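re: ur question from earlier - yeah i can do the single chain one, its not a big deal. heres the input i used so u can compare w yours
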Amino acid sequence: MSLKHLLPTFRNRFRFILRSVEDHCKAKKCNNILNLGTGEGDYDRDLSQFAHVVTACDINPNDIENAKSINQDVSEIRYEVKDALDTGYPAGQFDIIVCTEVIEHVENSKLLLREISRLIASNGIVFMTYPRLKFPISYDPVNYLWHKLGNKTPIINQGAYAFGHKQLIDDEIFLSMASDCGLQVQDSIPLSGYLIGFLEMYWTGIFQYHFKSNRSNEMGVSKNPLTIVPKTSKIPYLSKFTDLIIWLDRSLFNSKKHSIGMGVILTRAKIIS
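and the output i got, formated as tokens:
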């Protein structure tokens, strides 16, 4: 089973994506969904119920092999190794694009958004998540206070800057880049506030570094013999407890000013030549 669902940050992103896709596909299945940067394939099985074909790609071939393994019984999923900045897929091919926690790992955010704009159908919709620059102090007090002193780069590569993040995303800059790339933000939903931040402070990044095969979420693969690789995409029953934590966090700290992540819904505003 996928133990990631016991982490409120992951579970919150997962629920945002699946609920958003479900709301969009209430009437009927769409033809094509692209999961751009699928990682270990955590979303693909659930996405397949909303489309005739799910194309799931990632730059890391080891992640793709693992995703194939845990979802090998789902015939609607097609896995491919691709660079998210230049996939080579035909323009306007996909009705829905899902892109979770990818933009912070690429060198050029605008190239990613341009590729998404190129790939999405004229009446298609994009669901993205990204880690926010405006994260709560309870999640990473060291880097939070370091930024308050006027420093733009992190003092430690943990907390908000764990998981191989090259950057955290400023909401206004993202909005501007999306507009420049022909994408229009329809809605933005803060994901995971102060309570979840406190519960996941530092230990999740340290745990990933020591136990996840692709610790930096890039091309490299850890040689650590203690690596934990999910064997199935089954959601553990204890995720119900995680959902309770998410509900408490949203009820107690429903602030748009600070959150660990952001979920965004975009449509194509114009064709980019």
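The chain has a mean pLDDT of 90. not sure if urs matches, ping me
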